[in-house]
Amino acid sequence: MTSLVLGTAGHIDHGKSALVKALTGTDPDRLPEEKERGVTIELGFAQLSLPSGATMGVVDVPGHERFVRQMVAGATGIDVVLLVVAADDGVMPQTREHLAIIDLLGISRGVVAVTKSDLADPEWLAMVKDDVARLLMGTGIEGAPIVAVSSKTGEGLDELKAALDAVAGEAPARQAALPMRLPVDRVFTISGAGTVVTGTLWSGVVRRDDPVEVLPSGRSGRVRGVQVHSQAVAEASAGMRVAINVAGLDRDEIDRGDILAAPGSLQVTDRFDAYFTYLPGNEKPFESGARVHVHHGTREVLGRVLLMDGVATLEPGGRAFAQVRLEEPLAPRYDDRFIVRSYSPVFTIGGGTVLDALPPRRTHLREPERELLDALRSHDLSGAATGLLASRGVPMTSAEVAAALGLPRAGVADDLNRGPFERFKVAGDTYFVSVDGLERLVSGSVAELVRFHEDHPKSTGIAAGALRDRVDRRVVPKVFDAVLESAAARGLVRIVGGEVRHPQAAASALAEEDEALAALLPLLEAQGLAPGTVADLAGTAGVDVGVARKALTKLVAAGRVVRLGPDLHFAADAVEGARARVVEYLESTGTMLASDARDILGTSRKYVVPLLEYFDSHGVTKRDGDTRTLRRG
To answer: N or C: which end of the chain has fewer CB within 10 A?
Structure first.
């Protein structure tokens, strides 16, 4: 089964579709308006049998400048390019633009077909071939075979197939070991089957009944069936042109440009760091922050390219690290290629390689961030895994690092386990963090605690979650708790009852709270079943209301006080005494009304009703209408 895709490229009316039909027997122009106008508007598809017995999927792309968007969508999935140049026209504007796109996408295998050879004499053909050879210089397909053909007479077709066969054998394999990912280039409905999507499988394997996720929407579905060139297959692997019947999703829930992926394998982002190339043919420098069209996979969105480290402009032919900020989300992976076209008028000006798919929002690089981008650019994946941790500065699992880089987890885990990292075991997962990253979190926590105590001198501490928000919201709450425990073990912070405090800064607040504790409990015990509000209690005890609330919370946690509402607290002994009297009464009479309880407890309905509801909820009494009975068993 084919696992390579051949894509056409070239100027309008240079015979791309006619050549595909001559090679495969399939007319890739399927729309009525394409046949009527003789112009390819949408992507077309066919299957090519090669002399060796191998087969290739074929994607035929539009050549008109108005349809470069569709051309890019088709070109992003190809392994081998068939660049088409008509003998009677020679090299034309879209020839150059398509070749630039192919080069920016990193496609390094190709063949050139000089079509309509029956319309040119040998001397003219030789001149066209020389022009094409010069055009290819400095590109990824420099030195590619150049074959003169005629779709009309069949001359040169066998030679072209042989050249394609040889080049196909040199094309690099797709990433079958990575999770499944399919950029969608067509969506339609088949009666009785439902929603079908097509595209080139960029990575992984897809099988019947596999769960899938649609990105960027995050909708979920299931694979009902898989076809490769109209033949049902048990599975399809990376590099194949596939049609997938998706269950659980309606036609209007998937769009061209979406990505179908293994659940949880990709993350949606509104920015990514990249190594950006500004094409040498541009007439003026590229200005950092310029609004552009960004093409990734089969999707096009608007965005801005911001050059790093204060670089304001990039000369034609220049390259630089950049952060691409998007107006609509994408789901890129490390080492993906993207194309950049100017905002208006629209033409291809550059492109590049995705490096960090989930970076912080910044353009000035710290040293660890620069080291990470250098490692990613040079494909030092071991250095990238460790560099990502150093760059992020927060604890991450090996799975999170692998997902951020788009790499298999096993290799990343090995690299991290060998690295000089601090480790936290949290809920069965191992989190890694650089020594500097951990120190930053600990010192940041201490500094925020000092600041908190200065701003809130009457508070004895802050909740761990609130402290995390002040230090770094990227840290998972349970992991931040582990960081705090590490800091507490070093005597830098204190954790008491879920509250975090600085060891020295809370002394006066603690003393005030101790004073409130000492005064409030005897006061509640004296008030029995008619306690005052929190404000009344604080006023009588001579303490701040906020301090009184915290002290009462501690008394509730210690079991000395029972809270029956935000402003209603009883001494625990008083509640227990009331419970005993209610039980004694019910054992004697069998039933009780609220008015009976008021009489035997000697307090007002204001306090009786909350007490009875408390006894109901704690299995002492059972309510039936206005009557209560003793709950048995």
So the answer is: C
